[in-house]
Amino acid sequence: MYAAVTLFVFMCLTATTHAEHHQPCHSPNMTGFMTVISQKAGVKAFGAFTYDSMGKKLRFRSNESHPINTSVGLDLLMFFEEGIFYEIDSKNQSCEKKALQCTMHPLDVPDDATFVSTLHSGSSSIEGEGLKVNAWSGSMPDSKGYYSMFVTMGCLPVTTLYFSESTPFLFSNTDIELEIKDPDLLVVPSFCLGQPLEETAEGTVNSFLNEFM
């Protein structure tokens, strides 16, 4: 499957773009499910996410709603504007507060992304049997890698691939709804309030993506 996705990305990167100028769009508020797949380890995580596009906040909780055999169990609350995030352990009523060195994540097109092409997944001629998406690409600021992101005409992120020095990762989003169903998920839990900011080890880059690497 991963080889097929990689081929699809290669086709996108070599496609002819339209003449008109395209500006990166920004995703709306969303609730949905995210699957994280590594070429080396297979499915790394599957869980529910809540995204506040205006406040630039993200909550991701893996293996809660649909437990599967994955190697990563996470509960992350990211504050991209403030440059901090929390790793939450609700079971033990504890958390870790850390600094964000990189704010890139798979739910929004970066401002410096380059438009690649407009594509149809499935069929463009049969009603209800295709999905029109815009493909964007760019470099990853904290590594020598690059990304390819595919979003709908309404700027809903469908799939994002990150090609880093370690291993390629695929982030796939499903069952997206255009609302924040539970705003409390984007509020710091009471047992995390007053938590000191942990020191970041030299050479460490904290980011949403690196939580899965």
From TrEMBL:
**Which region is the signal sequence?**
1-19
User: Which domain of life does the UniProt lineage start with?
Assistant: Eukaryota
Please list the GO biological process terms of this entry: cell-matrix adhesion
Q: Which InterPro entries match?
A: Ependymin
Its GO CC terms are: extracellular region; lysosome
Instruction: Give one Pfam hit by family name.
Output: Ependymin
Keywords assigned: Signal
Instruction: Write one Gene Ontology MF term.
Output: calcium ion binding
Stated family: Belongs to the ependymin family.
Which PANTHER family did the record assign? EPENDYMIN-RELATED (PTHR10697:SF5), MAMMALIAN EPENDYMIN-RELATED PROTEIN 1 (PTHR10697)
Q: What is this protein's name?
A: Ependymin-1-like
Query: Which organism is this protein's natural source?
Result: Seriola dumerili (Greater amberjack)
